[in-house]
Structure formats: C-alpha cells, structure tokens
Amino acid sequence: MLYLHGKLQINYTMATFAIVIRGKRNDGHYPVYIRVSHKSNPGYIKTSFVVSDKGLKKTYTKDGKEKVEVSDKLIVKECMNEIAGYVRRLNDINSRDMSVQEVIAYLTNEYGELSFTEFANEYVAGMIAHDREHSAVNYRMAVKRLHEHMNKGNILFSDITANVLREWIDGMMDSPRKRNLYPVCIKAIFNAAMLKYNDEDKDIIRIKRNPFSKITIPKAKQSEKRSVAIETIQTFLCSDISGLHGREELARDVCRMIFCLIKSLSTPFNITVFPQYGYILFIIIGLVFLLVLKPYLTGMPSIILSAGVRLYRFP
Do the domain assignments include residue 155? Predict the structure, then answer.
C-alpha cells in the first residue's frame, strides 16, 4: 500500500519489502538484508549493516510460529529509509511484467551511474570474439582518443555531452578521416548501450539522453582515385621487348607475374626458383602458381603437374 495525494492507494503489482537476517557469522553478528517479494517470489538485497543478538527480538505469527525480527532502532530506521527510496523508484516504472531478479537489479544498479569505459571495453572484446579484430582496432583507438580528450580514466555515460563531442571533433581538424571515423565508433557503442540498458516498455531509462542527437558528425572525405588507366596497363603488358634475353627476360616475366598477383601479395607467400626446369613456383596460402620462363615444360616434375596448380604462361 502507498499514499498518493493524501489518499490510500493499493498497488497490487508493487513489490513488498521487509528487514530480515539470514544467517549468523563466525564473529557472532548477523548481516542485515532487505527482502524483496514480487509476484510471490522472494529476493534479497544485502545492506551494509550487521546486528548482534541484542538487536534482535522474537515474535510470533498468527498461527503461532516463532520468527526473529531486527529490533535495533538505528538499523531499522536506516533500512526503512532505503526501502522508501526503493518504493519511490518503483513508482516511476511499470514493474508488472518484471521478475523479482529484474526488480532487484533495477533497484541496486540505479544508485551507481553506468560506466561508458567499462561498456566500451566489453563491446570491443565482443567484436574480437566475433572475428572482427580489424574493426575492433578502430573502436579501441576511438575510445582511447576520447579518454585523452576528456582526461579521465573512467568515463560515465553522463559525462559524454553534446558540447564534449563537439570540442573533441573540433580538436581533430588535422585528420578528416578521424573526425568521421572516431565519432561514428563512439556513437555505435553509445547506441548499443542504450539498447541494452533502456527498456521503454518497462519505463526503465538508465541512459537518459543521447548527445549524438544534437550534433552532426562530419562526412568522410572522399578518397582520391588511384586506379591505373587501362591504356597504361596495356602498354605495360603488350610492350615489345623481344630483344631482351637472359636476366632481362626473367625480370620481365617476374614483373608480369607480380602484376597479375598484386591483390594476393598482401598474403604471406613463398617463391621457389627451378632454373633447370624453367619455371618459378609461387606458393600463396591456399593457392599454387607457376610462372613459366620457357615456352615448354621440358622435364617438369610430375608431382607439380598433378598438384592442381594454376598455370600462367607468358609469350
């Protein structure tokens, strides 16, 4: 039951509270708990108080069962203040569909502000666990740069305001890419936290504002095109170098081969030269390539031919 505007109101979905003890410690004292009962299910919130045998009293229920209650007036007063705070918080939300564990989590977590730093570390670790190491590097660097700007080891969500973000972005004028990439990463982490901690259906809003709604993240600068013209490639591959022999001819064929494999060369590879047979063997992870230096495969080992290699022959 609760009083509202001077009238007695009954909230059948409101949790009920009681001050209880659960067990005796080795030093003879009893830790004091606040029992939370919601939809016929009990849960317990541990307080910072302990009581001795002198602070307890025995009472009896209507059916004659004995029970022990906390009688220490100071502890009872402090616990009742705690309970009054819990009641006020539950009056602000719809707890009808919440379990007793959810009610306790809401009441106990409400006191401490959420840490952006802790959530960001968990978010980046989750990216790495899902094989997104490359993207995680950018997110980790964005979080690091935000910490450096704010000069704080532990950033709370309430610390990140629109003004803080504007100042941070303005401080990266030397790098258009960072001014776009880093705020985008921080915004993604912030949105993920709001999705996790806020539940509008239950009126639970632990992150009360989104500072990104009041700022505009600079657009990413268009990268310069570095593609090579088709005419240049044709000149490179079709140039007349029939007068080359020996090492010059080998150099030409190697250049052509590297050009054909340019996209694959970011992967570690091995090169083996077989001058007696007239070919070079490129071994890249998952692939095998042959660069034929002669117009025929005289004496090539049969094991190479049966390996399912990719063959590149140049005129």
Answer: yes
Q: Is 200 exposed, middle or buried (0-12, 13-18, 19+ CB in 10 A)?
A: exposed
121 and 98 share one domain:
no
Beta strands in 147-286 (DSSP E): 269-274, 279-284
Residue with structure tokens 């009896």? 60
pLDDT level of residue 313 (50, 70, 90 thresholds) = very low
Note the pLDDT tens digit of each residue in 252-288: 666 766 666 665 555 555 555 555 555 555 555 445 4
Helices vs strands, H then E, count in the chain: 9, 11
- Asked whether residue 100 falls in the same domain as residue 122, the answer is no
Domain with 147, as residue range(s), is 116-214
Q: Last residue of some domain: 80, 109, 138?
A: 109
Own/partner pairs, 81-85, CB within 8 angstroms, 24+ separation: 82/34, 82/47, 83/17, 83/19, 83/34
CB 72 within 8 A of CB 79: no
For residue 270, the cross-strand partners are 283
Domain assignment present for residue 224? The answer is no
Amino acid at 27: D
Nearest-CA neighbor of 32 among 16, 15, 19? Answer: 19
Q: How many CB atoms lie within 10 A of CB 276?
A: 8
φ, ψ for residue 279 (rounded to 5)? -155, 160
**Residue 148 identity (one-letter amino acid):** E
